[in-house]
Prior knowledge:
The protein is α/β, with parallel strands linked by helices and about 475 residues long. It has 19 helices and eight strands. It has helices at about 5-10, 15-30, 80-90, 95-100, 110-120, 125-145, 150-165, 170-185, 185-200, 205-220, 225-240, 250-260, 285-300, 315-325, 340-355, 370-385, 405-420, 435-445, 465-474; strands spanning about 275-280, 305, 330, 360, 395-400, 420-425, 450, 460. It has an eight-stranded mixed beta sheet, sandwiched between helices. Helix 5 (about 110-120) runs antiparallel to helix 6 (about 125-145) and helix 17 runs parallel beside helix 18. The longest helix has 18 residues, at about 125-145. The chain is flat, with a radius of gyration of 26 Å. The relative contact order is 0.10.
Amino acid sequence: MGFFSRLKKAWQSPDEVARQAVEEYRREQGLQEAEQPAAEPEAEAPAAPPRPAAEPAPQAAEAVAPPVSDAAPTATEDWQADLTLALRQAEPRLSQWLNTIVEGVEEKGQGLWDRLAFLFKALGAPENEAKKFIADFAAWLDEMGYQAVPEFKSELQYRLALALELEDEEDERDRLFLKLSEGISKTREQITKRIDGLLSAHSSLNDEFWEEFEEILIMADVGMEAATQLMENLKARARKAGTDNPDDFKDLLRDELEDIFKVPPRIKAVNPPEVLMMVGVNGVGKTTTIAKLAYRARLQGRKVLIAAGDTFRAAAIEQLEVWANRVGAGFYAKAEGSDPAAVAFEAMDKAVSEGYDLLLLDTAGRLHTKINLMEELKKIERVVGKKHEGAPHRCVLVIDATTGQNALSQAKLFNEAVGVDEIILTKLDGTAKGGVVVAVTLQNKLPITFVGLGEKMEDLRPFNGKDFAKALLT
């Protein structure tokens, strides 16, 4: 359970809790009035153990040190008492807490770092985690050239959600749903408007209705095989529900999509370091997806190593190294044209010996119809497994949603060759044929774990089938 959940569980009267919090803070800081009425012995509460005062943000590495002082707050800094009161009275959501923290702060700087450190302490996070978070964020702001709070507030909330284990909370789920809904707007226009027209033109779910619905699916790149399977499943649902009323159709479709996207439980524990072998053809966004995965893992406190196993594509190694430096991940590569299996083996050795938590192994992406590429991937699997038992723990296929039916053949061939465990679908925000999401899942029985909904680091978001169905049909 994250910090957010624990706070909500203990939530009682905001006014009373706020009053007690301010009094407690004043006692700690020596701000309590000198004359206090003596309490009766039987009513005396046990004194709370003293807590260390919140420390402001840390000094970062030499090159990117945020302007944060190590001096402890003085007794005159009543802003902490006021901020405690405001946080207690705010609705228990990350977005509301962040609004409270940045209220009156227009730019990055000392005031922001102090307030962020205070938020971490208020949520019970370790002091060293707060210092590292603020140092990393300050370095990122310097690199991006952002100064004003509105320029980076969204990114700050995203990082806080990951760092404080709040990503599964209602507030972040709402943000994800809105992002997903915006991302599939072209697909929704292609499918939902046509479905609405279909429903208004028919009084029952008859044969003519199903034929027209099949055309809608094919136009959205669901594909013939997947469209047929989806229709048969929907017909069975309608019969089981005892309805042929078009008014019930969207509910039937939403329930069916939720079932299609259900991810079976799996064992997530691995012998560290965890190894992800990233596969996919050139041009699907594999390199940036690796960077985004590394970025997420880094924000969650994991030590990440990226290995450049695509040794043949021009500038592939240099491109991946740039991304590794940007997200603060370790990097391993050999000379261009080196044996990819040798790169994987040596990177695995580095990950084990230097205590990395996660190894992201890039691979070549030449045409998926080439037999030699598939054999190369199999060899990488073998040598990595010899070095680290159980590795690679997951084989992740990256697919470009805009390629439509080509995505289906890629999933089939890579799965047959190396046994794909999950799929990341990129560029979903740039296509009107997002029906490929349904087709890939139906035909290959592979879970979609993330979807790309933009170019920013925060735009690789966890995929939730229930939210996708809701966003598509709303």
